[in-house]
Amino acid sequence: MPVESNAPYDHVVLISIDTMRSDALACNPIPLWPHKYHDIRPARTTVLDELAASGAYFPNVISAAPYTAAAHGAIFSGQYPLHNGLHEFYNGSLRAPSVFTYGRRAGRDTVLKTDFPIILGPQLGFTRDIDTYLVEEDDAFIDAVLARDSTVSCAHFGAVHAPYGFHNLAFGGDAYREKVAELTAELPPSLPFSDLLVESYRSPEDTELLVNYKRAIAYLHAEGQYDRLFQIYLDGVQHFLETRFTAFLDRLRERMAAAGRRMLLVLFADHGEEFDERTNGHFNSMAEAVLRVPLIIVGDDVAPGVHTNRIRTVDIAPTVLELAGIPAPATGVFDGRSLASVARGTQKLQGDAPAVAEAYTSELNEFVAYQQRQLSGQQPGALRHYLIGHAAYQDDRRAVRLTRQYSEWFQNIRPTEASWVEKFDESSVPRPVPDDDGADLLATLDDYRTALREPDQVPFTDEIRGQLRALGYSV
């Protein structure tokens, strides 16, 4: 039933749950994983199930990229990565106006809290148009939002990302130490492992725990234990929701109600997680379960309903701005379309939207060396990136083209040429179509790539050094 309200929202609160695949939610009506994994215990996702039931729930949203930076850039700007300036894994800067830009222009304060300051931070342009920037401070985020009369804000949570459910020692505590000990107990003494990348500031013990956790995950993948890995991931989703997120959401809603504030709540993910012969997690994968994410919108003028047709993450920004009554250009800016009328229940979602997704990456060893130079205060120099794969969606088909692939243990990237077409069945599960060359879909990808331009190298200015020092880095 349509819901109408003329009163503006005091606060627009975006919530990003990093690495939350769409069907990690128990309420998902078109799950992918039961068709692939066996003897799996689903996660208890009560808080998200109840949230989805209270608002407009979109379980079939295609992300523009399978990694945090480019995916969030597309979500915040409503533009695909090749258009907004941030398409590579760790190069470029978000140049396009964002929901925070438009919020500021409308006189609202802006707040961003992230668990990944190295990625969603000043280096890649995410603090532009942000008044208050916080790292891993859930309560301070709520305080900052309620301290203003009107805001556009985002709370980003990284705890569903590996190490699944824990994030770090501050949130994981002894349960995190015990899980790492359990996983590493079965490892052989020597492994060809070099994934030393971090997304946030960590103590020496925290860094060692993360590296050991990722080493164990890489070993299980090399051993083909995909079902076990997926269970570990789902257990992490449940642990995060029960130990951190539910309490956060309760506090946020209680304080909004006590203050008499109207809130538009928008929950989404940037990408999912998958395990099979081609994919270990999400690292530059075109797997459907990696690209398909959830979107939940809750507000006084939002009608509860489930909308299973395909939409895109670039649709989020124009939808949020229209629902919130924040002025934004009507044409010529967004690659996405506003679904405000669908969320309000005044229009039915028709058809499946066309979509594209791309993944760029660098040699892992080069990236590790680059990050170590950066965090030690040196000019990091250039970081080479390569297109590793992309996908195009049209109606009930999708085509995937891979141009490079990682070796086991991510030791190097090898050029490859592989493409295939899949068709979605009545349950929205993609099935291979061997006799379809996907020429029309691949042409869509070629057309999209005409927008490619050389990305800006990540700057390393005195201002960024100062911000990193404030976050605890010794630069």
TrEMBL record:
<dbReference type="InterPro" id="IPR000917">
    <property type="entry name" value="Sulfatase_N"/>
</dbReference>
<protein>
    <recommendedName>
        <fullName>Sulfatase N-terminal domain-containing protein</fullName>
    </recommendedName>
</protein>
<comment type="similarity">
    <text>Belongs to the sulfatase family.</text>
</comment>
<feature type="domain" description="Sulfatase N-terminal">
    <location>
        <begin position="11"/>
        <end position="87"/>
    </location>
</feature>
<dbReference type="Pfam" id="PF00884">
    <property type="entry name" value="Sulfatase"/>
</dbReference>
<feature type="domain" description="Sulfatase N-terminal">
    <location>
        <begin position="248"/>
        <end position="326"/>
    </location>
</feature>
<dbReference type="GO" id="GO:0004065">
    <property type="term" value="F:arylsulfatase activity"/>
</dbReference>
<dbReference type="InterPro" id="IPR050738">
    <property type="entry name" value="Sulfatase"/>
</dbReference>
<dbReference type="InterPro" id="IPR017850">
    <property type="entry name" value="Alkaline_phosphatase_core_sf"/>
</dbReference>
